[in-house]
Amino acid sequence: MAIHTFHSDETKAAMAAMTSDDPTTQKEWAASWKFEKCQCVATWIGNDDFFFCHWLAETDEDIHNALRENGLDELVFTACYEANIHIDTACLTNDRAFPMRQTEQA
Fold first, then answer.
1. Which residues contact residue 11 at a Cβ distance below 8 angstroms, ignoring those fewer than 6 apart?
2. Can you tell me the distance from the alpha carbon of 81 to that of 12, in angstroms, rounded to the nearest whole number?
3. What pTM does this model have?
């Protein structure tokens, strides 16, 4: 999970300007955020000074490299946090909701 915070009000306005007239579809967006070593699979953006993205990646650096490639690092600071559990009511399974940690299973 990546939490992005704008560098300033100016960079927040710049991103809003970039996206307000962007005709990209959701499918096109998803394809454009797929990289060799990582992929952004979801994003949550509101009106606040931060937004969230769900990434599939081996390392934090893979995410930072993808952001750099797209110039997003010029607009936002990013903190990455690994999430071991992900529950989404849009795609529920019969798997255990809170599995034991791998080290506890031994």
1. 74, 75, 76
2. 22
3. 0.82
Condensed to tens digits (0 to 9), the pLDDT of residues 28-71 reads 999 999 999 999 999 999 999 999 999 999 999 999 999 999 99
Per DSSP, what are the bridge partners of residue 34?
Answer: 39
Number of domains in the chain: 1
Nearest C-alpha neighbor of 67 from the set 103, 39, 93, 91: 39
Q: Are 55 and 41 in contact (CB under 8 A)?
A: yes
Number of neighbours of residue 15 by Cβ within 10 angstroms: 18
- Asked if 55 and 35 count as a contact pair (C-beta separation under 8 A), the reply is no
| Residue 2: strand pairing partners | 53, 80
Q: Which domain holds residue 26?
A: 2-104
Please say whether the beta carbons of 77 and 4 come within 8 A. yes
Q: Give SS3 for 100.
A: coil
